[in-house]
């Protein structure tokens, strides 16, 4: 399956999920697995049939994996930032990423509250609403505004920080230069939380890794998608190295 076909499917899914959410009255907990909301289930039930009928394998946060022998697999977080969505905070997204035998192929992260949509394709750069994006060039921690996931253990020299509640959108906001870097102080992120944004980051020029500096190995990560790792991302290599020194404790 070519990149254009994958992205067309992803745009279709994001649009249909947004329409489904527009008609949703219940934004509460679903009664399913811990932390699952009704809107997570609604979004998943929209995405999965479209992906399956298009011939993609599926790894989703909200349902069982299937078709993992297919040549292209979609990694799906139907709603990343579910708690934000339940509270009416406009910072939650659908994250979709396609992976093939060569690695990450294409991805889309759509803020479902605003419609702003990031896309990336392997070797082709990254865009926000059709316009190319690039990260900031801040190299010093003291000049940097970070977006954080979880509670930092201590102050380590940032200028300012924000904690917004959707790792996918947080990472994309490093890719477009809104923030200078991202650091994770939580118990870690699962593959569906970050896969789509990781390609958008790398294609925009962001340095992204585990907190100890280890590069992301998606072939191995796909074997255990619910396993959690902690990530760092920065618009410059120098800030990325500073984050590794500060965060990997």
Mind explaining what this structure looks like?
This protein is of the alpha+beta class and 249 residues long. The protein has two domains: 3-132, Fructose-1,6-Bisphosphatase, Chain A, domain 1, CATH 3.30.540.10; 141-247, D-Maltodextrin-Binding Protein, domain 2. It is built from seven helices and 13 strands. Strands 2-1-3-4-5-6-7-8 form an eight-stranded mixed sheet, with helices on both faces. Strands 10-9-11-13-12 form a five-stranded mixed sheet, sandwiched between helices. Strand 7 and strand 8 form a beta hairpin. The radius of gyration is 17 Å and the shape is globular.
Characteristics:
single chain; 249 residues; alpha+beta; Fructose-1,6-Bisphosphatase, Chain A, domain 1; D-Maltodextrin-Binding Protein, domain 2; 5-stranded mixed beta sheet; 7 helices; 13 strands; 32% helix; globular
């Amino acid at each position: 399956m070519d990149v254009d076909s994958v992205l067309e499917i992803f745009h279709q899914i994001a649009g249909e999920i947004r329409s489904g959410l527009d008609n949703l009255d219940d934004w509460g907990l679903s009664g399913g697995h811990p932390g699952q909301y009704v809107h997570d289930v609604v979004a998943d039930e929209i995405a999965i049939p479209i992906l399956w009928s298009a011939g993609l394998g599926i790894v989703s946060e909200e349902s069982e994996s299937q078709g993992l022998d297919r040549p292209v697999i979609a990694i799906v977080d139907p709603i990343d930032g579910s708690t934000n969505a339940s509270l009416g905070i406009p910072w939650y997204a659908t994250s979709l990423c396609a992976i093939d035998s060569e690695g990450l192929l294409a991805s889309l992260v759509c803020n479902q509250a605003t419609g702003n949509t990031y896309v990336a394709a392997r070797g082709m750069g990254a865009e926000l609403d059709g316009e190319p994006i690039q990260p900031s060039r801040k190299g010093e921690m003291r000049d940097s505004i970070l977006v954080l996931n979880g509670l930092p253990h201590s102050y380590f020299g940032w200028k300012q920080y924000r904690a917004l509640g959707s790792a996918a959108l947080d990472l994309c906001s490093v890719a477009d230069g809104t923030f200078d870097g991202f650091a994770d102080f939580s118990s870690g992120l699962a593959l569906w939380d970050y896969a789509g944004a990781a390609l958008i980051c790398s294609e925009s020029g962001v340095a992204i890794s585990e907190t100890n500096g280890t590069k992301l190995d998606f072939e191995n990560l796909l074997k255990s998608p619910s396993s959690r790792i902690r990530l760092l991302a920065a618009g410059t290599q120098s800030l990325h190295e500073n984050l590794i020194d500060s965060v990997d404790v």
